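Section 3.1: Structural characterization of target chains.
Under the original work plan, the team committed to producing a structural model for every single-chain target entering the pipeline before any wet-lab resources were allocated. The record below documents one such target. The sequence was received from the expression subgroup and is listed exactly as submitted; it comprises 126 residues.
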Amino acid sequence: QLQFVESGGGLVQPGESLRLSCAASGITLDYYTIGWFRQAPGKEREGVSCISRSGGYTNYADSVKGRFTVSRDNAKNTVYLQMSSLLPEDTAVYYCAAVRPVTAYSCSMKWNYDYWGQGTQVTVSS
């Protein structure tokens, strides 16, 4: 059975860092492009980042460029989102999602992701 388990969320102060993990079971993660998304209260879900199957291509929303870094460890079947210099506007539930892509060398948060995790809460507040 396919399952994603996200972890690493929590309450931090502005300027601090968190690392989110997305551990997959039931699939071999290296066949999939992984995206990170977030949804803040009262707002639509937005794409944050994605990483290609190969891990060699990444993409970021403008709002997080230079602050967030996505990576993957296919041997551990896990994808990470390192978040630094967090801002109050980064407060949201963060989700990882997977899609089996036509290319191993690109990714987009606009693709139709098929599998979703349950989300982990990130709160940035002083």
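Residues 40 and 92 are 4 Å apart (CA to CA).
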